[in-house]
Amino acid sequence: xxxxxxxxxxxxxxxxxxxxxxxxxxxxxxxxxxxxxxxxxxxxxxxxxxxxxxxxxxxxxxxxxxxxxxxxxxxxxxxxxxxxxxxxxxxxxxxxxxxxxxxxxxxxxxx
Amino acid sequence: xxxxxxxxxxxxxxxxxxxxxxxxxxxxxxxxxxxxxxxxxxxxxxxxxxxxxxxxxxxxxxxxxxxxxxxxxxxxxxxxxxxxxxxxxxxxxxxxxxxxxxxxxxxxxxxxxxxxxxxxx
Lengths: 111, 121
What we know:
heterodimer, A: mainly beta, 9 strands, 43% strand, B: seven-stranded mixed sheet, four-stranded antiparallel sheet, 11 strands, globular
C-alpha cells in the first residue's frame, strides 16, 4: 500500500483537460512544498514532469501544471494529446523515517 | 544527455545476495547525490536509498535498512547497490536516479532504464 493515494485511473478525450489527485498527510504534502510528478510510458523509465508542486522542468509542455491544497496535490493536463497516455506518479518528501514516498500511480487513458 | 545504465539484476534465491551497478555518463557524476528507486509491477514506485556526492552520507528505506548498502566510485562514474539477505518482496525493477535540486527541494531528475531483480526459490 502506497503512502500517497492516487486514483487508479482517469480518462479524457483529446483536447480535454484532466486532473490527477495525490492525497497525503500532515507529515508530507501538507507540510512540505516538495511534491513532484513523474510520467511513465510502458516499459520506459519515469520522467520528471513537475517539481516543488508547480515547477515545470525544462522541456516539459506548458500543458502540464501542478497545484496543492492542504493534504492534496494535483497534476492537471490541458489539451490532452494521445502521447499523454501513460502512468503518472506523485512523490513527496516526508518527515517519516523513509524520507521520500510515492503514490501508487494513475493510469491516464486518452480515449 | 544524461546517461544512466543499470546492470547486475537477475534471478536469486531468498537469502541470497546481488550487487547492482549503475554506469553514469554525460555529466559530472561526482557533483550529484544519487538514489536507488524500485518498482514492483502494479504496485508503484518505492524509494530505496540515497548517497551523497562523496559517498560519506547514506540513508535507506526502513524496508531495506541493514540488508542493502549503497556506495559509489567517482573515479569510475559508477553507483552500486549491494543487496544481501534478499526476500521475495525485494523483487522489482531497480532504477538508478540522479537527484536534482532547486535550492529549495530535491527531486528525482534523471532515471536509468532499470534492472530487474527476481527473488524466488
